[in-house]
Amino acid sequence: MSYTNIITDAISNRLNNPILKVLTEIKITTLLKKSSFSKKDGASNYTIFLHFIYMIIMNKKIAIFMKQSKDSLKKDAYYRMLKNEKYNWQKLLLLSSAKLIKLVTPLQKSTEEKLFIIDDTNEDKKGKLIEGVCDKLWSNKDKKTIRGINLVSLNYSDGHSNFMLDFALKFNKNLRIKVQDFKNQFYHTSSSQKRKKEGLESKLVLALNMLRRAIKAGIQADYLLVDSWYSKPTFIKDVKRLKLHVITRIANNNKIWHFKNNYKTLNRIYAILIKTARRKRATYNKIKYTYCSTIINHHIAGRVKIVFIKTHNKLIPILSTNIRLTDEKIINIYKKRWNIEQGYKELREHFGFGKEENRIYEALIARISLSFISYNLVSYINRINYEPQTLGGLFKDLECELTNLAVSMEFFIQILVEISQNLDET
Fold first, then answer.
1. What is the number of other CB atoms lying within 10 angstroms of the CB of residue 345?
2. At what angle do helices 18-25 and 45-57 cross, to 10 degrees?
3. 202-239: per-residue pLDDT in tens?
4. SS3 for 318?
5. CB of 7 within 8 A of CB of 415?
6. What is the structure's pLDDT at 218?
7. pTM
8. Number of domain units in the chain
9. pLDDT digit string (tens) for 331-361?
10. Chain centroid to CA 30: how far?
11. Cβ-contact 353, 371 below 8 angstroms
12. Residues near 19 by Cβ (< 8 Å), separated by ≥ 6?
């Protein structure tokens, strides 16, 4: 038996480490190599990566982790991983997500929709010298403009489990430090430089590129859910070319949505529709509303179905490129777009998202990627070992397990003794 197998078996049997089991199952060492994580000497990238996962789940900063864990490495080992321009965190996040989704596929029911969800969020960052930070970002959470980062992300949901697949930091014209003034400037083919260039693209281009990468990685979904900002006719047309249906709320904007028939605007279409169509009634979170639908042609988006939801004071048009779906199905699927908001909430509360303390762009990307990977691992453990529940309860259980694991050296010493005895016998 090889050294690696002996160590892995010993740790798994003695410590029953759930994180280590999952990482072994998805062959994380192979994924690290495929993502350009390589080094000639010192602690392995796998060891450093594993320590970061422990830090995030236990909510420990590097300095605290080093004080409390006798088997920690020197701080330079951790910072070198965060700042390396060659490490492809984007690929590692996507490949590991694809492996986890493949493992939960046997649990999925054929009647349940698999969804891609694209959204963006703004995270407040006070520091003026943090690379990637922009001024004048509108925060829906705070209802005001803030200084921070604008993150566009792609999420996968099957109704029971959520996985963060990809993300990009979007720069605006109010970028505090220009890209050419970032501290580290690397060769244009490095992963770091590619991501910096990516941040200058529009959010629609970023979203399409994420979808293409996910599909190329073998992740399949039935629908893409987006909010009204992304629901541009050209974007919907491009997504349909990827053989994906789109369900989205659309903006009641006559310049963007102009239809082929005699009644070209959404307001006019709805006014005519309610004269002939019977409106159904429903309730959502104590909000009463009526709804009705029509199938209509758009010169760019093509043939689409629009469900008009009318509350006391709002008209909410929901568009579906799958015209065969019932009104109720379209509404119920679109409600699941909330899953990504719940994902952001759990990331902030339990996985350090938004609390990164890194000024250098490469380190910021690395820390967000590690938060997303940790979230995915816990989501998978939640799905496989427990009845689907909120991640908060499971998170506390894992935190206790991994705290005992990381701060104690006694078990590891015993394992090394056993390994030595096994090798002497062979």
1. 13
2. 140
3. 999 999 999 999 999 999 999 999 999 999 999 999 99
4. strand
5. yes
6. 96
7. 0.87
8. 1
9. 999 999 988 888 899 999 989 998 888 899 9
10. 22
11. yes
12. 50, 53, 54, 57, 377, 381, 398, 402
In terms of Cα–Cα distance, which of 172, 153, 155, 152 is closest to 163? 155
**Strand 245-249 versus strand 223-226 pairing type:** parallel
Question: Residue 219 corresponds to which amino acid?
Answer: I
The predicted pLDDT at position 408 comes to: 43
Domain that holds residue 300: 245-336
Describe the crossing of helices 361-385 and 89-104 by its angle, rounded to 10 degrees. Answer: 10
Position 379 in a domain = no
Please list, residue by residue across 80-92, b when 16 or more beta carbons sit within 10 angstroms of its beta carbon and e when fewer do. Answer: bbbbbbbbbbbbb
Phi/psi of residue 72, nearest 5 degrees: -75, 165
Is the residue at 306 inside a domain? yes
174, 136 contact by CB (below 8 A)? yes
The two structure tokens encoding residue 172:
């605006």
User: Which pLDDT does position 406 carry in this prediction?
Assistant: 46
Distance between CA atoms of 88 and 201, rounded to whole angstroms?
19
- 393: CB partners within 8 A, 6+ apart: none
Q: How far apart are the first and last CA of the chain?
A: 9
- Residue 58's pLDDT is what? 85
Strand residue runs (E) in 3-94: none
The H-or-E segment that residue 374 falls in is helix 361-385
Query: Do 145 and 179 form a contact (C-beta atoms < 8 A)?
Result: no
Are 156 and 101 a contacting pair, CB within 8 Å? yes
In a domain, residue 65? The reply is: no
Q: Rounded distance, CA 216 to CA 213, Å? A: 5
Point out the residues of the chain with pLDDT beneath 70: 1-16, 262, 386-426
Token pair listed for 34: 């495929």
Note whether residue 185 is domain-resident: no
